[in-house]
What does this fold into?
Amino acid sequence: MNSTLFEDFDERAQEVSKYFFLLKNLEQGSIKLSMGNPNNHKIKNIDVELEKTLKATGFLLLYNLIESTIRNAIESIFDDMANQNISFDDLKRDIKKIVIDNFKKNKRTDNLLNAINHISLDIIFASFDKGKLFSGNIDARKIRETAEAYGFSCQTTARKTQDGNDLLKIKTNRNDLAHGFKSFEEVGKDATAEDLLQINYTFADFAFSN
It folds into this structure.
């Protein structure tokens, strides 16, 4: 994977970590609300229900980090194939199948016709649509399936990553929130800032360990 991908991941992961450090300070009471104006204000603790909502939002941030990272990794693979002028005939069988599936899913036939001049070269990237790669379905199993199909490693040290078990929790909470199955209060009530921080670190190990 190229350095730009790692840089993008590091930047996004730091943004998420800053949010969780803020939550940790809220949880510990070291950050409070100042209500009113400079001449007349009151200091209050953060409302407990609001704290739960903020923690639940953390799962949305984590899922966004996960899906964007995996999507960018796949896009990087297609970019490399395009830059190296790799022909469809030179692809391994699994990736040929992916390209054909992409082509079948792509209903913009006029755009495809305009993009394809040399079919064995252009078909690979012309039918690729990163917006259709994933749809709320990223977890450890999906990452493994994707790694196997594209031929990259996702092997990790299970002691450090718990074999990606936290990713299922992130996906489930994200989908429960996105589809309205659970309230933010329900999702955030049992979460701690430290747990969320640890999940963030664990994903970094899971995504990029060899």
About this structure: Strands lie at 33-37, 40-44. The first helix runs from residue 3 to 28. Residues 3-83+130-208 form one domain.
